[in-house]
Design brief:
Shape: globular
Number of helices: 1
Helix content: 10-25%
Number of domains: 1
Distance between the termini: 36 Å
Strand order of the largest sheet: 1-2-3-4
Structural class: alpha+beta
Length: about 70
């Protein structure tokens, strides 16, 4: 996986991590995260590093499925 430090000036960055598509997007100073091409609502980050770390944790430690 490419390191984010090479893309520190980018407003958008994406990669495949753990066979999942992850991406971050800077919109007006807030970093939004995408997992499998889906915007993850209710989470914003102040830095690209924080956004990427959150995505990597989600892939490495997935949440259990909800029972309805």
């Amino acid at each position: 996986m490419n390191t984010l430090e090479h893309h520190s000036e980018a407003e958008f960055w994406s990669e495949v991590y753990g066979e999942r598509s992850i991406a971050i997007f800077n919109h007006y100073g807030h970093w939004h995260v995408y997992l499998d091409h889906v915007l993850q609502h209710r989470v914003l980050f102040a830095s690209a590093d924080d956004a990427l770390a959150w995505l990597m944790r989600r892939v490495d430690q997935p949440l259990p499925a909800r029972l309805h």
